[in-house]
Amino acid sequence: xGIMPIHERLAELWTIRTRRPLSTEEQADFEHCLAVNAMxxxxxxxxxxxxxxxxxxxxxxxxYEICRKIxxxxxxxxxxxxxxx
Length: 85
Hints:
Elements: H1 5-19, H2 24-56, H3 60-72, H4 79-84
Helix pairs in contact: 1-2, 2-3
């Protein structure tokens, strides 16, 4: 999975912001992108925590399921999952 469009837009707006003030519409886009990015990061952090819990309870099937979700979201899977893949 490559970079998400929301992250491309965030980078574009950040770059524009270094050259000039953002318009009202651009500022709204920037805030929206930041909110979506934060939500994405929270989801990945939650999945990583669940993966750790699955590992600690030695539930490999659950951990594989969680790691597939992490990979789908563009995060990295745990070392245990990658080693078994």
